[in-house]
Automatic annotation (TrEMBL):
One CC-aspect GO term: plasma membrane
Alphabetical list of PANTHER family matching this protein: MAJOR FACILITATOR SUPERFAMILY MULTIDRUG TRANSPORTER MFSC
Lineage: Bacteria, Bacillati, Actinomycetota, Actinomycetes, Kitasatosporales
Entry protein name: Efflux membrane protein
One Pfam family cited in the UniProt record for this chain: MFS_1
TM region positions: 19-39, 59-78, 90-114, 120-137, 149-172, 178-197, 209-227, 239-258, 279-300, 306-329, 341-357, 369-391, 412-433, 439-458
Length: 466
């Protein structure tokens, strides 16, 4: 049953307070982005420390992203119902406790389980942070700039994760990439309590537990088949059963959602071209980013014998490109709309992938740095127009769910990118990693070309009043 809150909406906070709220949310979002990628550069060290195989190491990354992707929509809905600040603070607390469990994990199984709990906490941060920012910025142009800043911080955290991870591992070992979360979580909890106002959606819905269960099953099965396929065999009975169960879960999810009056994910939203392309574009961008980072980590550390710090430093141009171009992209979206930033994003991303499609064992490091710079620029230009388009096409009262659907696409893309990259190089020795990665760089190129197509339909739909 849908209920409407009878109270009048509170007046908008002052300019300084609004941008302080954005800064606090951006700090918390930095945690989510960093933890999506910081582990990548530490995978070889984790494997040596815990005796894990390549397939097991993929689960260290994807246990986090799969759970995060599965719960984002329901977390956004819970925030709209029970209060965005309340859910945000709960997410920070869960994330912090799980980070400590990761740092203390004695085995691979415990680490994967703790990473899954981290994903639960992170799911309460990503869509809720965006909803808080949108709620605090009533002016559309100011909102577009704020989303640009928000996306730039998130993009920077994703790109800077390997650099920070390499430095921490070199100084303190792989467990430090989880210890570092504790002081940030404590600071964020204090700042949220002081500066972030409580807000709710004007409409609340019943929880869709069947839809949530089916969505979780579909994402888990899909990613699981991609990760375990090389080990069990793509045509083995286990893999065939996985394909069938994945298809059944997706079909059941669609059937349940189309029949419910208050679905977890309103599939009719995908009839809007702008919203659909924004969601698909977000997935493509994160497939490219996660695949680039994992292929680079394995090639440099396993194939060339680089240290984690050196491998992380090699991604600095990516972080630089994302840092510079993300706020620029937000400003362009505010003035010109999303099409031009998306054209730039697609062009640079495709160029970065093409640079490494013929990667060799002795490829010049300068070429690797150039490719990472191009990919970082493309990534920086992509997030603001995609986020603004997705949120702009839905009612403001559903900002939490709008952000959650787009964030779900990002995390599914990230999980798929890790799984596919791992599958491509799973059976390659150190000398064969470069050649085995060629198909992966072609996929990165294809993601960039796909964004060029997304740009044609990326104009935001008119805002629908709740």
């Amino acid at each position: 049953m849908t209920t409407t809150t009878p109270t009048a909406p509170p007046s908008a906070p002052g300019t300084r307070r609004r941008w302080t709220v954005l800064a606090v949310c951006a700090l918390s979002m930095f945690l989510v982005g960093v933890d999506t990628t910081i582990v990548n550069v530490g995978l070889p060290e984790i494997g040596r420390g815990l005796g894990a195989t390549t397939h097991g190491l993929e689960w260290v990354v994807d246990a986090y992203t799969v759970v995060l992707a599965s719960l984002l929509v329901v977390s956004g809905a819970l925030a709209d119902r029970f209060g965005r600040r309340r859910i945000f603070r709960l997410g920070l607390a869960v994330f912090g406790v799980a980070s400590l469990a990761c740092a203390l994990a004695p085995s691979l199984g415990v680490l994967v389980a703790a990473r899954a709990v981290q994903g639960i906490g992170a799911s309460m941060l990503s869509p809720v942070a965006l909803a808080i920012v949108v709620n605090a910025m009533p002016d559309p142009r100011e909102r577009a700039r704020a989303i640009g800043v928000w996306a730039s911080v998130f993009g920077l955290s994703m790109a800077a994760g390997p650099v920070a991870g390499g430095a921490l591992i070199a100084a303190f070992g792989w467990r430090s990439v989880f210890w570092i979360n504790a002081p940030v979580v404590v600071a964020a909890l204090v700042l949220v309590a002081v500066f972030v106002p409580e807000s709710r959606g004007s409409r609340t819905r019943r929880l869709d537990l069947p839809g949530q269960a089916l969505l979780t099953a579909a994402v888990f099965l899909f990613v699981g088949v991609l990760i375990e396929g090389p080990r069990v065999g793509w045509t083995s009975p286990t893999a065939l059963a996985g394909y069938a169960l994945t298809a059944a879960s997706v079909a059941a999810f669609a059937r349940v959602e189309l029949r419910r009056r208050e679905p977890l994910m309103d599939l009719t939203l995908f009839r809007r071209p702008a919203f659909t392309t924004a969601v698909l574009g977000a997935a493509a961008v994160f497939v490219a980013l996660s695949m680039s980072l994992l292929l680079t980590t394995l090639h440099l550390q396993h194939g060339r014998g680089w240290t984690p710090l050196a491998a992380g430093t090699a991604t600095l141009p990516m972080a630089l490109g994302a840092t510079v171009c993300a706020p620029w992209s937000g400003a362009l979206v505010g003035r010109l709309g999303p099409r031009r930033p998306l054209l730039l994003a697609g062009g640079f991303l495709a160029a970065g992938g093409l640079t490494l499609v013929d990667l060799r064992q002795d490829t010049s490091p300068s070429l690797l740095l150039l490719a990472h710079l191009l990919i970082g620029i493309g990534f920086g230009f992509a997030n603001a127009p995609l986020t603004n388009t997705a949120v702009g096409g839905l009612p403001p009262s559903r900002a939490g769910v709008a952000g959650a659907i787009t964030s779900t696409a990002r995390q599914v893309g990230s999980a798929v990118g890790i799984a596919v990259a791992g599958a491509l190089v799973a059976d390659a020795g150190p000398a064969g990693l470069a050649h085995a990665s060629h198909a992966g760089w072609l996929i990165v190129t294809a993601c960039g070309l796909f964004l060029l197509g997304v740009a044609r339909a990326a104009q935001p739909a008119p805002t629908v009043k709740a």
